UniProtKB/TrEMBL annotation:
This protein's UniProt keywords: Methyltransferase, Transferase
Lineage: Bacteria, Pseudomonadati, Pseudomonadota, Alphaproteobacteria, Hyphomicrobiales
CDD domains membership: SpoU-like_RlmB (cd18103)
The name this protein goes by in its record: 23S rRNA (Guanosine(2251)-2'-O)-methyltransferase RlmB
Gene Ontology MF terms: RNA binding; RNA methyltransferase activity
Organism: Methylobacterium haplocladii
């Protein structure tokens, strides 16, 4: 589903950039994000999106240093960048956004149907986790552990916004989001296909290390504070806890995702 770079040529010589008058504010405000396209910013989200042939591109705004770095790393770009001052990107994103001189308007990535995931897939399911920073961090971790896809719901879940993409640090290009209407129904359907559904619960009787590893697995994570909803818990084959040995006995959900994926992928079949 993603495109990989195979030794792109190094950038040579001076570039011919399209200049905009100083103080000009680019059109296409980020307010359209989530409707017909998504806004990505920062080095990893933008560079990974440009390298992903499945990602449709609309518009790339970049500073001179940003363009030079992109061309040095990627070679010929799939879209012609518009040279702007950092202040022009600040005007679109706000002064607090760490954009590193890169702003991209792109199409949403196509999402696979949940029925199409292979029988040996490793999935992560999110039960009403709404914070885009947490979801982005989970996506980044999922990409690091080779997760096939992340299952989330249309309601009570953040869209693939620029904030999420920045936290995911390019992970959105490698781990698709599968949006379902009802998480419980999706978990039931996966169970009927033989997937082991492991729900994370701090009060569970089973330690995470004791969970049987299977080829097809779903790691189910609940929102911080609330945890897994009762219906979601009922759709899991096992509820497991992370055993902590220090004074603090809990971590945020993105850290819990990393610990769980590490524990469940060691020696996993497939």
């Amino acid at each position: 589903m993603t495109s990989r770079r195979d030794g792109p040529p190094r950038f040579q010589g001076a570039a011919r950039f399209r200049h905009r008058p100083q103080g000009h504010r680019p059109g296409g405000p980020a307010a359209r994000e989530g409707l017909d396209h998504v806004v990505l910013y920062g080095w990893h989200p933008v560079s990974e999106a440009l390298a992903n042939a499945a990602r449709g591109l609309h518009r790339l705004l970049a500073t001179e240093n940003g363009i030079l770095r992109l061309k040095e790393e990627l070679g010929e770009l799939r879209i012609e960048p518009e040279l702007v001052k950092p202040s022009a990107i600040n005007a679109l994103l706000g002064a607090d956004a760490v954009h590193q001189g890169l702003y991209l308007e792109a199409e949403h990535l196509p999402a696979p149907a949940i029925e199409s995931v292979p029988e040996d897939a490793l999935l992560v399911a999110l039960d009403q986790i709404t914070d885009p920073h947490n979801v982005g961090a989970i996506v980044r971790t999922a990409a690091a552990f080779g997760v096939t896809a992340i299952v989330t719901t249309a309601r009570h879940a953040p869209n693939a916004t620029g904030v999420m993409a920045k936290s995911a640090s390019g992970g959105l290009e490698h781990v698709p989001l599968i949006v379902v209407r009802n998480l419980a129904e999706a978990l039931i359907a996966l169970g009927e296909r033989g997937f082991a559904r492991v729900g994370l619960d701090s009060e569970a009787e089973t330690p995470l290390d004791d969970v049987e590893k299977r080829a097809g697995m779903v790691v189910v994570l609940g929102a911080e504070g609330k945890g897994l909803r009762q219906r979601t818990r009922e759709c899991c084959d096992v509820l497991a806890r992370i055993d902590f040995t220090g004074a603090i006995r809990s971590v945020n959900v993105s850290n819990a995702a990393a610990i769980s994926l590490y524990a469940l992928t060691r020696g996993r079949a497939g």
